[in-house]
From TrEMBL:
Name of the protein in question: DsbA family oxidoreductase
Domain DSBA-like thioredoxin residues, every copy: 3-204
Organism per entry: Fodinibius salsisoli
InterPro entries: DSBA-like_thioredoxin_dom (IPR001853), Thioredoxin-like_sf (IPR036249)
Length: 234
């Protein structure tokens, strides 16, 4: 059974959602029969990388918030992440466009290392405060997850993997996905947002039963929760 996950490296709820799904899979009897595929999505494709910018000031300027409000919002997601065992350093996050990071993920997927690359990039952005639009940083992450550095370097400038990023984004638009994380289980059941672990587990059991019974049609259901949308709201 397949789970497709649209996410952006810069989306704080996407990393939280990843952890909650993993916890659900740990409790799921058939987790060995689940294939995960990470799909690319950009919340802010026009973002300009500025490693010297302060993330709270950037958010205040782009969203019309006060710096204090930006800090409060970042603290809220930091607290949510902490509950899942993730130590976010949101105040130190680097303002960076995520397209190149997605290109690396697409190459990693071709080498059956998509999940490892997704995890490493989330960690780099949210915990280690690294610039995910920096080539040397991405190559370091590539080696970390077991990718060949030379081939990874070629991939970062490859039209093939860049087009794969764009194709994932277009697929999401075609399905009218308006925010991430977005989970599609066996192309029949969608979960929007970083749902609680119990919701993921219920969905896994439901779709597994229906898939295992090889039913022809299953009503598409959707659950919504914490997410980032295309208007930049988190």
């Amino acid at each position: 059974m397949k789970i497709e996950i649209w996410s952006d490296i810069m989306c704080p709820f996407c990393y939280i959602g990843k952890r909650r799904l993993e916890k659900a899979l740990d409790q799921f009897d058939h987790s060995d029969d689940i294939a995960l595929e990470w799909k690319s999505y950009q919340l802010n494709p026009d973002m300009k990388t500025d490693a010297d910018a302060n993330i709270n000031e950037y958010l205040a300027q782009t969203k019309g918030w006060s710096v204090a409000h930006a800090q409060q919002m970042n603290q809220r997601v930091t607290d949510m992440a902490a509950a899942e065992g993730l130590e976010y350093n949101m105040d130190e996050a680097v303002v960076a466009n995520s397209f190149q990071a997605h290109t690396l993920i697409q190459y990693a997927k071709s080498q059956s290392l998509g999940d490892e690359a997704e995890e490493a990039l989330f960690e780099a952005y949210f915990i280690k405060s690294r610039n995910i639009d920096d080539t040397e940083t991405l190559l370091d992450i590539a080696v970390q997850v077991g990718l060949d550095p030379d081939e990874s370097h070629k991939a970062l400038s490859s039209d093939t993997y860049a087009e794969a990023v764009k194709a994932d984004i277009q697929e999401a638009r075609n399905m009218r996905v308006r925010g991430v994380p977005f989970f599609l289980l066996n192309k029949k059941y969608s979960i929007s947002g970083a749902q609680d672990t119990d919701i993921f587990l219920q969905a896994l059991n439901k779709v597994w039963k229906e898939w295992n019974e090889q039913q022809d049609t299953v009503e598409l259901s959707e659950q919504s929760d914490a997410a980032c949308d295309v208007d930049g709201n988190c």
